[in-house]
Amino acid sequence: MDINFGTQEPRRCTLNVVSAYAPHAGLDEEVKRCFWEGLDEIMRQVPPAEKLFIGGNFNGHIGSTAGGYDEVHGGFGFGERNGGGTSLLDFAKAFGLVIANASFPKRKEHLVTFQNAVVKTQIDYLLLRRRDRGLCMDCKVILGEIFVTLHRLLVVDVGIMVKRKKMSSRGRPRIWREP
Length: 179
Description:
- By secondary structure, this protein is of the alpha+beta class.
- It is built from two helices and eleven strands; from the N terminus they run βββαβαβββββββ.
- It has a four-stranded mixed β-sheet, with helices on one face. It has a three-stranded antiparallel β-sheet with strand order 2-1-11, with no helix packed on it.
């Protein structure tokens, strides 16, 4: 696929999309360590020149402020940071990633990715390489019926222009018209 990422000439590139589901807070630390090691291994298999998007339920709270993670946290999170959030921020920092849904100012209800009768929180995140943050036009939570699922849909708007090849007159289908 020929894609133009804001450069003059379109170029071929590979988009890597990773879906993650981190262990919840109540699980053993060994289970959590295995998750982060597995994600680390996946990251090491993606060449640095390729585009990368990671999305999923990280079961951690990054908090409402960057607090020492300015290069990965845009300062627009929700709630208070916990250990799982710190693990996510450390991971993002180590691999040169940015958390897309902490990079855009939103109203409180548009930051909440998980809600039940007791709690509203942000545990689902979208990450991309820091150098590609210019591709990310917006990242938002789509509000919907909470009866269907406790997680809200998290969407990223990415600016990608695909250049189509011109069809030559040879091989182009023609319409036959009767005289």
